[in-house]
Amino acid sequence: MNVLLSFAQFEREVTAERIRDKIAASKKKGMWMGGNLPLGYDVVDRKLVINKEEAATVRLLFDLYIELGTVRLLKAEADRLGIVTKKIIRKDESVTGGKPFLRGNLYRLLSNPLYIGLIPHKGETYSGQHEAIIDQETWDQVQHMMSSNRRERSSPTNVKAPFLLTGLVFDEEGEPLYQAQASKNGKRYRYYISKKLVSHPKSDSNGWRLPAQTVESMVIGLIHNLLQDRQRLMDLLELANRAPSLLEILKVKADELAGELIDENIEYQQSILRTIIHRVGFSTDTISFDLSRNALFNLLEIIEAIPTDSRNDIITLNHTVTMQRQGMETKLIIESATKARQPDPDLCRLIATARNWFDQLASGEVKSVKEIAIREKIFDTEITRMLPLAFLAPSIIEDILKGRQPETLTVRSLKRLSPLPTDWNEQRKRLGFHQ
Question: I want to staple 27 with a disulfide (CB 3.0 to 4.6 A). Which of 121, 179, 368, 399 is the partner?
Fold first, then answer.
């Protein structure tokens, strides 16, 4: 059963790869390939067409940003005017969207090249087959202002750095940690501290005094890694069995959001964190996160996947940490791996191909190795070298799927594992897996 489940996952990977290639080719032709509809457009015959009423709202938001100068003020004005996100009616007649803009929504709208007639794909843009809503002059002015604001906020002279997690950080007893600041030699330091230290800041009590920048960088890093770990993200959002096209959209949007999260725009970082985080808890050996699943769906722009039952909205993640006292501060060290687990698509494809060829031979779909070699235009010795990989231990397959294989394991080394031991423990030993 484990083998069947593993290769079902392989088949999804192969299908997703084909879809990715098709999406890339279509986007280079300027075609709209689905996903959440941006405000200002509708889809007719699989093409983007301008929704005149919504397009006027988009132009207004761009003009207001030029007038007001910051997304914070833009959001306040949008709320005052009652401007909301695009309302979408699902096939089951339930409604999503139509809610006040988050700052993150506004940042994305103001930087979405669709509005000047371009199709974005993996950091590149291509001339689209749809009409633009925003003229080039307005677009250039807004991008310049956003870039200038970003540089200003990242400047060392901006000493009044905001606390990104105010009201979200708690200790092991459920007590909130408060923000505090101190100055030394003209430099400002920020902390999250226990309530008992607020009135006695120089106390040697066992209360918490955590450097704010360390805490915030740690939280940003861990969420960034989650967004980059596609398999883990799919599992947490319960999307493993969804259509490959949706999973491809998830990958693209997660990569975009991960990049935006480590952007130097502090205001945007704060918006993302406060949107998806319900709570950050610290104990002597663990940091835990309570994240909103629905908020992640919204930021990833896959709102069609939001479950109608919102009772299980909270996701809790735990990471092991080590606390080290340094003077009056506490230094945090994350013991869990900082690098997100990433499945190697070449290894996955290799094993899926081996299994597929074996199934074709076993079912009689093909008569011989020679027939496969002729069809694939490769030497038959290459096929005989790969076929034994259809009998890898299920635990090895699972580890490869989740990106937990040894760094030394490559397509080349796996192909040259000859002969393949029949004992699964011996296979793991030969390939360098943990026993």
Answer: 121
